[in-house]
Amino acid sequence: ALLREEGFTIEYQERTYTAAETFRLRRGNCLAFTNLFVALAREAGLTVYYQEVDVPPDWSVNGTTFVQNRHMNTFVDMGNSPEQIVDFNMPDFRASYDRRAISDDRARAHYYSNVGVERMQAGEELPALLNFRLALAADPGFVPAWINLGSLYHRSGASDWAEAAWQHALQLAPREYVAISNLERLYRVGGRLAEADGLRARLERHRQQNPYYRYQQAQAAYAAVRYDEAIAHLRFAIGRKANEDRFYALLGLAYLRRGDPAAAERWFARAE
Question: Which among 101, 78, 73, 105 has a CA at the least distance from the CA of 89?
Fold first, then answer.
């Protein structure tokens, strides 16, 4: 009904709301929609969980701030039946994305961290700080909240506290490239060039291991008519993530452009 009922349409808005607010306003982001669905589904007696979805890196810009967009949907446990996923944007949902059911405490941390970012972007530093503290009270190991808290401290000129928050994020998740990138810029601006260079090398190593980063590099190489380079990136990406059809489709195009239609046909068949 939430997805198809003509009399109850929820429009997408880049704002995080509670279930009640989403119901009243009829708008919100993926987490707001998930809040509403979880509340209604549990009231109806269904067993449902919040679910984190590892979508490919997706960024937007708000003023001078780069924002990494994450995704959330709902896992419905139907017992022995095939799994049921409810997503605000089902047409774009892909089964190839890694995903995991999470606790309500982790979902609560997502909520407060999101709201904190929205308040920070609005220039409301104290409400932002309070929301980040609520996120970390719900789940002290929630890395995005530590990263966002560091960004708030950095905006406020508290560089030492920003460094501490980002370093703690890396203690929790050593491969968290957003925290690495933030620290690298902080050290470079502060003249700590050796530390900055070390983090930049570490960041590049992590990026090169990310199949979606390699896919982006393959897209750039393909557009520049460097088909062998595109093929190399795509073969690496497939080695790291073998169930992503876009990798196979672009690989087929690269072989086709390189003049090998037989190989192209094989990779198109794998994509299909």
Answer: 73
Cα angle at 102 between 179 and 5, to 5 degrees? 110
> Tens digit of pLDDT for each residue in 144-171?
999 999 999 999 999 999 999 999 999 9
Per residue in 210-237, pLDDT (tens digit) is 888 889 899 999 999 999 999 999 999 9
Distances 108 to 142, 160, 220 between C-alpha atoms, Å: 10, 28, 38
How confident is the model at residue 161, as a pLDDT? 97
Identify which of 92, 47, 53 has the alpha carbon closest to the alpha carbon of residue 72: 53
Q: What is the pLDDT of residue 58?
A: 58
What does the pLDDT read at residue 91? 65
For tokens 């709201």, the residue is 115
Task: Show the 3-state SS of the chain.
Answer: CCCCCCCCCCEECCCCCCHHHHHHHCEECHHHHHHHHHHHHHHCCCEEEEEEECCCCCEEEECCEEEECCEEEEEEECCCCCCEEECCCHHHCCCCCCEEEECHHHHHHHHHHHHHHHHHHCCCHHHHHHHHHHHHHHCCCCHHHHHHHHHHHHHCCCHHHHHHHHHHHHHHCCCCHHHHHHHHHHHHHCCCHHHHHHHHHHHHHHHHCCHHHHHHHHHHHHHCCCHHHHHHHHHHHHHHCCCCHHHHHHHHHHHHHHCCHHHHHHHHHHHC
Tokens representing residue 3 in the block: 């997805």
Compute the mean pLDDT over every residue in the chain, rounded to the nearest whole number: 90
Low-confidence ranges of the chain (pLDDT < 50): 59
Question: Which of 201, 209, 215 minimizes the C-alpha distance to 249?
Answer: 215
